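Section: Multi-chain targets

For targets with more than one molecule, the full set of components is provided together so that the structure can be written out for the assembly as a whole rather than chain by chain. Components appear in the order listed by the source. The example entry contains two components.
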Amino acid sequence: MSKISLKHSGGNVVSLNSPTNAPSAADVAFKLPNQDGSANEFLKTDGSGNLSFGTVTNNNTFVKLSKTTITSNTSQVDFTNSITGAFDTYKTYAVTITGLVPQNDDYTLRARKFDSNGIYTGAEQHTRVVENGSLYSYPSDDNFVLIRQGIGNNSSGSEIYENFNGIFYFFNFAANNRFSVMSNCVYKNASSDTTFTTMGGTTNVTTETTGIRFYMSSGDISTGEFTLYGIAS
Amino acid sequence: MTRYKNINSERIAFTAAEETARDTEEKAAVTEKTANQYRFDRTISGTKTYPQIPEQLDQLFKDITAGKFGDDAKTGEWYIAIKAVKDANPKPS
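Its structure, encoded as tokens over all components, is:
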């Protein structure tokens, strides 16, 4: 087997080696690109031996953009457009919330949108919540009511009896659109009853949405993991 | 005690103005929760809660059948429709 060896002045050699197994059918020839690629690009082939630099297409549907882990009492969790890819790259974004335990027993999870003026608190955030099969409407609140019953926070030592898990999808971030949210959640309420909630929320304003805030109606979030994804179409 | 917010994974202390606004909001939430607690107690979390709707309607049907609302109630549209279903699908004796 032959190889091309490049000896460094320091003494050691870097070499290009022929493959371990012989080419199966015919000679294999590679033609190098005539210029360097951009940062983080990879060398690829066109199937005819012509090499070039290119990017790797990310075919993941859920593209993780940011993760926030809460381990001590925190009043608000915000995702803003300072995060690369948020909120002008994808048509749909998702936030998964896992293991959320509230500081205060029996209070509800809420959300608000940001726009260019900061957090939006106009009474134009409308929610309909279907919880355990019953429909509840919140037609003119200053926030999105994400669930109807409060979340429990009962635990014993390392055993967690009550917490909240859910996934939220967000749409229409661009200006001249009405920001919208929908979700599926399951949690234990303050009586440790299983609570399943699906909800939809819309706004009546068309300002560009530049961020999302999650918070409890009262008290802090003690623990929980919030992960923001862009959903590739 | 100082409150904290988390912005894009960075933990930041509340400003005095944010503390005041949050105090007001939490107080309103507690007031609203207290005012509406009876709704949850009656339906979900109380020591005594409403029966499921089918059970309530069955109780109503039985009371009408027993004449507690007068004989006219037995000629009502709802009673006739429910009775027709029950008659078509009799409970095994």
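DSSP finds no helices and 19 strands in chain A.
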